[in-house]
Write a structure and sequence with these properties.
21 strands, Rossmann fold, 17% strand, alpha/beta, 34% helix, globular, six-stranded parallel β-sheet, TIM Barrel, 663 residues
Length: 663
């Protein structure tokens, strides 16, 4: 490929180039691997399958990218999107919720919810597509596997193997990148990392007649980065665009990887960051625009990893006079000023999905986010000025998050609530695993080596799934009672049976700011666990008073109700009834009942060492502290778990009646 700057453009193209080049690169980045795609007549055939649950906004880019690659190499290729087919079919499932809506993703990832609510509805469709694949009789099938479709993939892979014993199964996607992922079916090829070059290697091996008895684990060189500019264009010809929410839209990528290494994230370690040339992206958009496509969703970990290249793309779109709409995931960044946002909006950018995570500067530092709450506020304010909207992603219960940090996150949301916030995703709490820095640096973040109730807990017992349940639930109650200029619902968790509240005035504190408050109000002196649990609710009660004035409320925590709403990730044997009232002068009364019953042997050792060393895991190790926890034998792990089970019973009951005054 020539590395000469673009030239010989028509007048319009010259205007586009003049607008773009002050910001964008004229030549590809060096040090990237170009995937060689040589066409030949092949005997091997491949069928790519996308199973639910995933976004149904637009046709799946990842599958279309691989279809374009294999067809350009001469392999007979088919692709089926069972995800969108299931979405269309789900209208007849009789569920009282949309299982494709993000807050209900746990219905796909937790076995109890999947078995009782999803599987019986989905399996007939899976069997219908099994018949289609069997009729094609491909040499190999490829699945993109995520935590949210792993159980559906298992069902289909097992059935396909029964019907086509010689069929080879290839797995890629995020689950292939995670070091402790395992599959309940035979996998012939497990492809971790960027799949294009590895996919062609696998198909070439199969074409030459090579067969393996054991699973082949393929991973790219740890320092390899594929050039995104030379890959064949995605091939969407197997997809009916009319089945998707945006029939005139496609997904794309501006980059791969991430420029930061947030301590809670494993996705950023799948591959190293690199971006496409803005002109290449613009050329692809223009070609699709000429075919009637005018909505684009960039699926990058962050579309603004290279601000200059992104701005160059925006300038090129403006000069091209295309009328398009586009969106993507982004990080808040203080370098994006109002003029930057004006260019984005003029180029058709309508929304960013921001990984805000927290409103506490302390927690943001501990996360290595590289931003402050002031920068977050300025980004949302400028976004509102130019007419863009912003989705907020939050992570509650970071290991160093305390009630005051939780208050600061709620404060941030209140302060930006009228800056075109379109939705707030509060998730199910912070994730600690082998492939993120939290999991590999547990002592640094006060994380116990022993899990409690099936998930992580801090060494001081002050941050557990019960603490995170209270924060996430009361935060959603707070969101439900926002007063907004545009009356947009910010959460789907209405929680009607979980609480009732009655505000006594029309007070709206528009200028509420960050405060430092001591929420150690109840002092039962039972245990660090119990003493902290019974004080979790105060931050939410406090900010509702400060922002909305006098009110009275009753909040219920019930194991069955909370597990149904938030999954077993948060729901457990915890019950509470919180009765609270406060008048306009800040005088409050509280009557609270708490009870927690510890189940049998809830402590178990969390082994952070992998079943397979993926590149993600290797990169995590390189970034981790030099002193890491040793590999323990099963007996040693069992001894530690037994010690905790024998020593710590955190069950408690507590009834609090009290009063006080808040300014």
């Amino acid at each position: 490929m020539s590395t000469e700057p673009y030239n010989d453009y028509a007048d319009k193209d010259k205007r586009i180039l003049a607008a773009l080049l002050p910001y964008a690169r004229q030549t590809p980045r060096k040090g990237l691997t170009e995937v060689k795609v040589d066409y030949a007549t092949r005997n091997t055939s491949v069928c790519f399958l996308m199973l639910p649950e995933w976004s149904v906004a637009m046709a799946p880019y990842n599958v279309a990218r691989l279809v374009g690659l294999t067809r350009n190499a001469g392999y007979k290729t088919h692709a089926f999107d069972l995800n969108v087919a299931a979405f269309q079919d789900s209208k007849n499932w009789g569920l009282d919720y949309d299982p494709w809506y993000d807050p209900y993703m746990f219905k796909w990832t937790h076995a109890d919810a999947y078995q009782s609510e999803i599987k019986n509805n989905l399996d007939p469709l899976i069997m219908k597509y099994v018949d289609k694949v069997v009729e094609l009789n491909p040499t190999v099938v490829g699945f993109s596997v995520y935590e949210c479709n792993k159980m559906a993939v298992t069902t289909m892979a097992q059935e396909l193997k029964k019907r086509l014993p010689d069929l080879m199964i290839m797995i890629g996607g995020p689950s292939a990148n995670r070091s402790n992922t395992f599959f309940d079916f035979h996998v012939d090829y497990l492809v971790a990392g960027e799949g294009e070059e590895l996919l062609l290697h696998v198909l070439g091996e199969i074409e030459s007649g090579v067969r393996h008895k054991d699973t082949q684990f393929l991973s790219q060189a740890i320092d390899q980065r594929i050039s995104l500019d030379e890959l064949p264009l995605p091939d969407y010809s197997d997809f009916d665009f009319n089945q998707y929410k945006f029939p005139n839209g496609v997904t794309m990528e501006f980059s791969r990887g991430c420029i930061v290494k947030c301590t809670f994230c494993d996705e950023t370690h799948f591959w190293k960051y690199r971006d496409r040339q803005a002109m290449r992206v613009l050329d692809e958009v223009r070609g699709l625009y000429d075919r009637g496509i005018n909505n684009f969703w960039f699926l990058d970990s962050l579309v603004n990893g290279n601000l200059k290249e992104l701005r160059g793309f925006a300038k090129g779109v403006i000069a091209s006079e295309m009328k398009i709409n586009w969106t993507g995931w982004a990080r808040c960044d203080g370098r994006m000023d109002l003029d930057f946002y004006k260019d984005l909006a003029a180029a058709g950018c309508t929304n960013f999905g921001y990984g805000v995570e927290s409103g506490s500067n302390k927690v943001l530092r501990d996360m290595d986010k590289g931003i402050t709450n002031d920068e977050i506020e300025r980004n949302f304010r400028d976004s509102k000025t130019v007419g863009m909207t912003g989705t907020v992603m939050l992570i509650f219960g970071f290991p160093t998050e305390e009630p005051i940090d939780f208050l600061h996150t709620m404060t941030l949301l209140w302060r930006i609530r009228n800056y075109n916030v379109s939705f707030v995703a509060s998730g199910l709490g912070c994730f600690v695993a082998e492939d993120n820095l939290l999991g590999q640096n547990r002592p640094k973040y006060n994380i116990s080596p022993v899990q409690y109730l099936g998930t992580w807990i801090t060494n001081d017992f002050k941050n557990s799934k019960i603490h995170r349940l209270i924060r996430i639930k009361t935060f959603n109650i707070f969101l439900n009672n926002f007063v907004l200029e545009d009356n947009v619902p910010l959460t789907v968790r209405k929680l009607e049976s979980h609480y009732k509240i009655d505000f006594k005035s029309d007070t709206i504190a528009n200028d509420y700011t960050y405060e430092d408050i001591d929420f150690n109000i109840c002092k039962p002196n039972i245990s660090a666990f119990a003493d902290s649990v019974v004080n979790e609710v105060w931050a939410s009660l406090y900010i509702m008073y400060k922002t909305r004035g006098a009110f009275e409320t009753e909040i219920i925590f019930d194991p069955e109700m909370d597990t149904k709403e938030f999954s077993s990730s948060l729901g457990d044997n915890f019950s509470a009834k919180i009765k609270f009232s406060i008048d306009e002068t800040g005088n409050w009364l509280a009557d609270c009942d708490y009870a927690f019953t510890q189940p049998e042997r809830p402590w178990e050792f969390h082994n952070i060492h992998p079943k397979k060393e993926t590149n993600s895991y290797k990169r995590i190790i390189m970034l981790s502290d030099s002193t890491r926890e040793p590999v323990l034998t099963w007996n040693e792990q069992g001894a530690i778990s037994n010690e905790f089970n024998d020593k710590y019973d955190l069950s408690f009951k507590y009834h609090y009646i009290g009063n006080g005054k808040w300014d």
